[in-house]
Amino acid sequence: MAKTLRIEYNVVRDAQALAAEAAERFTQVAEKAVAERGRARIAISGGSTPKAAFQLLADATQPWRARMPWDKLELFWVDERCVPPDHADSNYRMTREALLDHVPLKPEQIHRMEGELEPQMAAARYESLLRDSFRLEGAEGPRFDLVQLGMGPDGHTASLFPHTEALDEMGRLVTANHVETVKDSWRITLTWPVINNAGSVFFLIGGADKAEPVQQVFAGPRDPERLPSQLIWPSGGILTLVLDQAAAALLPATDGDGCGVLERER
User: Fold this and answer.
1) What is the CATH number of the domain that holds 228?
2) What are phi and psi of 137, to 5 degrees?
3) Element (H, E) at 187
4) How far out from the chain centre does Cα 6 lie?
5) Kind and range of the H or E element at 131?
6) Into how many domains does the chain fold?
7) Which phi and psi (to 5°) does residue 136 adopt?
8) What is the average per-residue pLDDT within 137-164?
9) How far is the C-alpha of 246 from the C-alpha of 171, rounded, in Å?
């Protein structure tokens, strides 16, 4: 893993612009991966901000629907709540309603986490799915073309919550994580070494309630037990943030194009 992390952040006006920027990044990465390797593997997160981006991708009146190489796309999930796929809290359900029901993806291209199963079994089954899909051998890890992350006000990302056991998991690809502070619930999540192995990783963050955690995570002292998003340190040495103005309020000012850079050392 790179010793120096270059954090490139792009600040846009509002939630609508944030969704459009995310849709563009999804599409660009997929186009590039298909051109280079014949397919694109993308892992996505839940939440209202990705939902708006998915709705744009599915909208035939928007440019991204026609550009996205749907027949060469494989879709995975970063994390999932331990609920059935039709439950209101399901990340899969949100994605299905916003995107999957409206685009030409075949069932075999959609790799959901089985949140309805017992947590440890669901994690083991998703790890097996990743090993089969990526044809992994031994300790080899999957390399997604893109992992899209969000961040909570508590500094969590994926289902890597503060002071939970998943933060210490480095040997598995997928783990079940008990989150006492959120409805005493169970989650399934990719582990942080898997996220860091991706070709590209970007955080999609919006809202004034994220301004302070954004500053603490990306510009403050290192404390990943309290701020698990600090564990995201891509092996390529570059991490991208896509933020609205409210979420970026406490970061250093950007240039005229809305771009800024931070650097962190281990």
Assistant:
1) 3.40.50.1360
2) -125, 140
3) strand 185-190
4) 18
5) helix 119-134
6) 1
7) -80, 150
8) 97
9) 37
